[in-house]
Structures are given as structure tokens and as C-alpha cells.
Specification:
Blueprint (H helix, E strand, L loop, with lengths): L2 H24 L5 H8 L3 H9 L13 H8 L4 H8 L15 H7 L3 H9 L14 H8 L2 H9 L14 H7 L3 H9 L8 E2 L2 E2 L1
Antiparallel strand pairs: 1-2
Helix pairs in contact: 2-3, 2-4, 4-5, 6-7, 6-8, 7-9, 8-9, 8-10, 10-11
């Protein structure tokens, strides 16, 4: 190998190392302590981490800090803290199954639902399967949450990827109070076969 070829090779290796080092610096590192504090609903530790530079939009291979805070927070203080630090109100689980609004609905936390709506959560944001928040509220049987979502502009007859509407979700989960409410609000009538009777 001649001298100029060797210099060219060394320059290329040096360039590759520099690029690789730069990419490593930019690679996302997970703030484990911050996410642990969110999971444990440790308000003081989360606040300290945020003040020390942690991002309220931190996430891991499961979901966002906001989703973790919702799962472990009963009084919504931690959720409010994250939202005040510009957490993405719609950043849900990595698998696309839940938005933060859906997590709050699943847990039946009306206070957290109200807080997320106050911070402009997208009520019609679809999950990977096409569900929106009203599907979840209908399944859970919460007329109160359905009312709040409708007041915020949720689509009454949104369909999942399989064609299921919130009214169908309520029927399938035997949430008859929600069925009546959705019908009163103008949900499209449907005919389902349940055993030998028509619903």
C-alpha cells in the first residue's frame, strides 16, 4: 500500500469515528431516575429532576412520563406539574394503544380527564387500532366523561379500524346508561345480534 492510500484510509477512519461519536452524543438516553420518580408518583423527586433539566417529554420503550404519572397519581398534582413543564398532552404508550387521555379514562380519574382537556388533549386522536377517547369512556360506562368529551368536540360516531363505534363499545360492555346517553345525543342506531335477541 502506498503512502497516499494509507493517509486516505486513516482520514476515512478518523472521519467515521468523528461521525460515530457525534451520533452517539445525539442518541437519546433514557432518564431512568426521572421515569422511576414518575412511576412511583414521587412529586418532589420529579420536580427536582425537572428543575435539574429532565424533559417532561421523557419516555422509554413502554410509554411517556405523563402516562406513568397518570397511572400512579390520584390527585393529578404530578400530571399538572408535567403539563406545566410542557409535557406533550397526547404522547401515549409506544405501542400506540393508549393516549394519556385514555389512561385517565381507564382509571376513572375525572379530575385528570378535566386537566388533560384543559391542556387541549386531542379528543379525536386515534390509537393504532383506531379507538378514540369516547370508545374508552363508553366501555368504562362513564356518562360524565362522555359528556365532557362531547362538550370538547369528540366525534360521536367515530369508527375503529374494525368499524366499531362508541355506541357499539357501550353495548358490547353492557353499559346501558351510556348507550341511552349516546342515543339521546344522536349516535347512529345499529343492529347487533347478541345470542338470539336483537339489540
Amino acid at each position: 500500500m502506498n503512502y497516499s492510500a494509507l493517509i486516505l484510509l486513516l482520514s476515512f477512519v478518523s472521519f467515521e469515528s468523528t461521525v460515530f461519536a457525534s451520533l452517539l452524543k445525539r442518541a437519546k438516553t433514557i432518564d431512568i431516575d426521572f421515569l422511576k420518580a414518575c412511576k412511583e408518583c414521587d412529586y418532589d423527586e420529579v420536580k427536582k429532576c425537572l428543575n435539574d433539566g429532565s424533559s417532561a417529554n421523557e419516555s422509554d420503550n413502554i410509554g411517556s412520563a405523563l402516562c406513568y404519572a397518570l397511572q400512579s397519581s390520584e390527585d393529578c398534582r404530578l400530571v399538572k406539574l408535567l403539563l406545566e413543564h410542557e409535557a406533550n398532552v397526547d404522547e401515549g404508550t409506544v405501542d400506540g394503544k393508549y393516549t394519556p387521555l385514555m389512561v385517565a379514562i381507564e382509571l376513572g380519574s375525572i379530575k385528570c380527564v378535566e386537566l388533560l382537556l384543559e391542556y387541549k388533549a386531542k379528543v379525536n386522536k386515534k390509537t393504532a387500532s383506531g379507538h378514540i377517547a369516547l370508545h374508552m369512556a363508553a366501555q368504562k360506562g362513564s356518562v360524565e366523561i362522555c359528556e365532557k368529551l362531547l362538550a370538547d368536540g369528540v366525534s360521536l360516531d367515530a369508527e375503529t379500524n374494525c368499524g366499531c363505534t362508541p355506541l357499539m363499545s357501550a353495548l358490547l360492555h353492557n353499559q346501558m346508561e351510556v348507550v341511552q346517553y349516546l342515543l339521546q345525543k344522536g349516535a347512529l342506531h345499529i343492529a347487533l345480534q347478541s345470542g338470539s335477541r336483537s339489540i
